[in-house]
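Researcher: Good morning. I'm working through a list of sequences from a screen, and I'd like to move beyond sequence-only analysis. For each chain I'm collecting a predicted structure so we can compare shapes side by side. This is the next one on the list. No need for commentary yet; just the structure.
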Amino acid sequence: MAQHANLYTVVASATDCEGDIIVSSQQDADTKLSGCGTVAGSIVIASNYSGPLIISNVTSITESILINSLYDPTADYLGGQHLTSLQADSVVAMNGGDVRLVDLPLLESVSMSSLENVTAINVAFNSSGTLNFPSLVNATDIHVFGTIAR
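Model: Good morning. Structure tokens for this chain:
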């Protein structure tokens, strides 16, 4: 009697990435977040990060997007000073999480166009900045400091 092996087709899909992910450059973010559909933890922007940060393909974050000095109290307080923008337009949910981008003098824009649910948003612009949260349905706290450009 001949035995036949069952054949399965494996379909590549986004997976959960466990733990906090610290990113120090766009290339680092692309590498560490590649294939992550959900980040079960925080995305931490390292003290030495410079320029815009684009988070692609991640649809859910269970904790926060924040700068290193808020994540690690022993880190350089002025860390992340050169972050100019955050674009995370694929993120739909941050249930139980928040966006904390403060003490960033070069921050000009934050865009999370698909975000529907977040616990809190805390963004501070040194001068004027733009916010893009058109899909936001549920947030417990929203604190924005500085001038918002239209």
